[in-house]
């Protein structure tokens, strides 16, 4: 099933350039970008936890939360 989305001319040009450089379809490109963003967010959370030096019980709580986030879509609401 296909869907139409509206993007600015600037965003369209960037997507088009990436599409041409990567030899992917728009769907494949957007999927990869979304996956990369999700990985970036999880890594940023891991770095924040490492810097905070939380007590071990808090670290386990954060790990549980990260696991739950991985099991749902990044755009899902609580």
List the helices and strands and how they pair.
Elements lengths: L8 H14 L3 H27 L3 H15 L8
Describe the protein's architecture and organization.
72% of the residues lie in helices and 0% in strands. It is mainly α. The chain has one domain (9-70). The longest helix has 27 residues, at 26-52.
Name a few traits of the molecule.
mainly alpha; 78 residues
Report on the biggest sheet.
Answer: none
- Percent in helix: over 70%
**Structural shape:** elongated
Give me the count of strands. Answer: 0
Tally of alpha and pi helices: 3
* Class by alpha and beta content: mainly alpha
**Quaternary structure:** single chain
Poorly predicted residue ranges = none
Percentage of residues in DSSP E strands:
under 5%
What's the SSE pattern?
HHH
Short précis:
The protein has helices spanning 9-22, 26-52, 56-70. It is mostly helical and 78 residues long.
């Amino acid at each position: 099933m296909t869907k139409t989305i509206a993007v600015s001319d600037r965003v369209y040009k960037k997507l088009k350039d990436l599409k041409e450089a990567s030899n992917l379809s728009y769907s494949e490109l957007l999927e990869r970008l979304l996956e990369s963003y999700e990985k970036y967010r999880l890594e940023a959370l891991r770095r924040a936890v490492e810097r905070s030096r939380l007590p071990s019980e808090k670290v386990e709580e954060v790990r549980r939360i990260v696991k739950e986030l991985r099991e749902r879509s990044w755009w899902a609401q609580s």
